[in-house]
Amino acid sequence: MKTRILKLLVLALLAIVMIFAVSCKDKKDESIKDAIIESEKESSTTNENAGISFNTLSVDGTKVYGKVSNSTQDFSFPNEIEVVGNADFIVSLDSYGTQTVITKTIPLSEGDNEVYIFETINGKLTTTYTVTIRRLPTYTVSFNTNGGSQVASQTIEENSFANKPKTTRTGYTFTGWDYDFSKPITQNTKITASWSANKDTKYTVNYYLQNLDDDNYTLHETVKLKGETDTTATAEIKEYPHFTYNENASAISGNIDGDGGQVLCVYYTRDKYVISTARNNTKAGTVTGSGTYRFDKEITLTATTNAGYTWLGWYDGETCVCESEEFTFKANKDVTYTASWSANKDTKYTVNYYLQNLEDDNYTLHETVELKGTTDTTAYGETDRYAHFTYNASKSVISGNINGDGSQILSVYYTRDTYSIVGNNSSTKAGTVTGSGTYRFDKEITLTATTKAGYTWLGWYEGENLVCETEEFTFKAEKDVTYTATWSANTDTKYTINYYLQNLEDDNYPLHETVELKGTTDTTAYGETDRYAHFTYNVSKSVISGNINGDGSRVLSVYYTRNTYAISVNNTSYGTNTNSGNHKYGKIITTDAAPYLGYEFIGWYSGEELLTTDTSYTFTVDKNVMAQFALKAEMSNFNFTSTVTSCQITGIKDKTITEIVVPDYVTSISQGAFSGCSSLESITIPFVGKERKTSSDTYQYPFGYIFGTSSYTGGKGVEQYYHGSRTSGTTRSTYYIPTSLKKVTVTGGNILYGAFDNCSSLTSIEIPDSVTSIGSAAFSYCDSLTSVVIPDSVTSIGDSAFYKCYNLTSVVIPDSVTSIGFYAFYSCDNLTSVVIPDSVTSIGEYAFYDCDGLTSVVIGDSVNSIAERAFYNCYNLTNVVIPDSVTSIGEYSFSYCDNLTSVVIPDSVTSIGNSAFSSCYKLVEVVNKSTHITVTKGDTSDGYIGYYALAVYNSGDIFEGTKLSNDNGYIVYTDGDEKILVGYTGTETNLALPSYITEIYQYAFYDCDSLTSVVIPDSVTSIGDYAFYNCYNLTSVYYKGTASDWTKIPIGSNNEKLTSARLYYYSETEPTESGNYWHYDENGNPVVW
Length: 1089
Description:
The protein is mainly beta and 1089 residues long. Helix content is 4%, strand content 42%. A hairpin with a 6-residue loop joins β14 (201-210) and β15.
């Protein structure tokens, strides 16, 4: 009884625990245990064998598993679990015991169902079991019979086996299912049947031929065949003569049905043939019966024969197939049969000929002709049967068919010919003629002539033949003919000619001469037109000719104008003269000749006769006089216009020329005059640009102006700046200058602003003595210019005059120059030396800036200041002489002259500008004679002049001479036993430093980017800062000492190119240990072991 009470208490406590389990999950086990412990205090009953066991389920520790049939919908644990002793169990749906199942029976879903069994003994929780009960699911097994009879699907419980069904298919043999039925079903499964087709399935082919008399088809043949089921059967297309396979009506292919029911039908249409007829002569008869007929159709062709023809028969080509007019046969081919006849050849026809009457237009039957010919051929009449008559086509029936009945009559008409009878008058002044006209053949005609006074009748002539001596001439018309009435005229009729000559001083004409003459009546009398020398017949004033009247009354008047003679030049473009024009014969005159520029006077000529070579000529006018000028040879290749005082070149004739020389007298050159001279190599010009200009003039055109702004092959576009509409500003144009042009010689004018700006192809320019100043930017960017000689006439060199003339190697500045402008020689990289004459008083800012090829500069004694950056970045400058006249050295004036090793500052210098000698890394010796400044070694003051110095000598210090020497390009400073390498000025890229060097000074090889290897002697004890800075191509360093010695040499900062190069140590013999070693070969070159 107490045990039951305890159990009830335990159950009650468990229920309480479950109520709070949701909020106290982490203490679920402890709560249950506490409740059990409390209950145990009231019970002393124990049972060591108490517990639960499972009858059918499998137990693995606390895991319990079992399967039940799909038909089991509930699982009862009381029936499954056997309880021993004081044990009991609780069934819960969760592991916390919050979803207990009072009935201890759970519903089962298909698949795994999980529950928890809490075992208790004496009310104490002892074991928790996780129980999985799998209710076996069912799966559907379906069957794809693949064309066979249908099979029902099966529902199979998991891990059970499907039943193998049966299926059938007509025309096929079953070969199996694609599944192993000995395997259990574990999922929904679809099983497919396999078949093999029978190869002896029957099918039928029926052949039908079209009927003769209708469009139906009759079965002609049946063929029984076999083939593979459900493959395509195709009927054979057989050949039946005179029948054609009908594709549209036929079904020649189809599936071979398993039941043998497939019937293929092949239809053949009866062939049709075209039966054609032809006639060898369409006029001979008719034919019927042609058409299109089916094979084997009986046909009859019928012919009828016209009168006048004989039937010959039916022909197939050349073969006669039937002699009767009716021809019966059966159609079996396309064929043409020709009906043939022959025509009669003796058919009659008549031709009537009519001739036109003489007196009227009617026609009279003249002749009837009876003839014979072939029936239905063409008969023709004659068209030239009668002389003096012409066939009249419009009125005649000249041809026609020869009818078989002889009824054809042809009518041919002939028109009477007409003739032109002409009475010709040999002289209309001698008489008259009548009777001419057009007359029909055989008409009688009379020609009549009358004779005028003064003429004698000669007769009627046909050509040269006299046909009638009387004035009346009667005859009949029988041809076209001309008869000429002929007379003779008198030959002694009188006439008069009066001649008049013009005066010298006025235009009047007095009678000079009267001439009496005789001639033939009614002919033309003529006066003379060239009777008097130096006079010319005046046609407009004269009556030079006229008819010789029979009464002698004819008077002719002939006027002569006094000749004028021209005073002229051979070419008005070549020169001019005074009193030019026309002058009357006999006048005394003086004329003077003046040639235009570009031409020369040859002499005064009359025709080919040279009269005089004097430019002034006086003579009596009796001939044409011409001043002869000739083109000067030097201008022969130019197109130009000129006057006595001006000459403008507008173009050039031969653009292939290599040299042009423009004479000094040329005053202007047109823009583009020399455009297209792509082979030009040198040119000589009297001025630069369009014309001679001064610095105060506008439009100071540059050199490129004469080559123009149009591009051409061989011309390079050069942009040039110059003074245009105002001198206070600049303009620019692009001119196309021949790339072949290298040399320019200027013989006059001025070199003004931008004169040769950007002429990068020119290598030589000669400046004339007339130039007094070289304008600003005059030669800027002439980077092919190699040398310049400045004449003694030049007093100033303008700003940027030789700006960036990179290849200028020498320039001679004459003593006449007093100033050198700003940027004058800026970036003249190849200028190696400059002598600034004593005449120069000022050097402009940036004057020699970046002249990195400059090695020596001599500054004249008159220069009082060196402007800012005057010699900036002249890094190859090794020697400069500053004269006593200089009082100030401007800012940065020698900055970056990093090969300048020494400098002497004269006493006259009072100031040195900021950074004047900055970055002059090799300026190690400074001699300062100025008492105005004090130079301190290592100091940045006074323009860094002493900053890099090894020795400084100020005013008052003893200077015994330079300690610098040049040993094959190595600049060495000697201070006692110290041999300090200051720099290298040579061109070698593989260097072996002198063995006596003790120190490599700072910046010694600064920016030596061509240096590839160097041999450093073991005498070197230190290497200064930046000594090998920017030696980008330095790859090998050969040290004459050992690795230990090398580590003892202090190496200054910024020598990464030295330290990153491959370092080799000297070894006279080949080392046995590994490492970087070198020795000398037989030629004294370093070689790596």
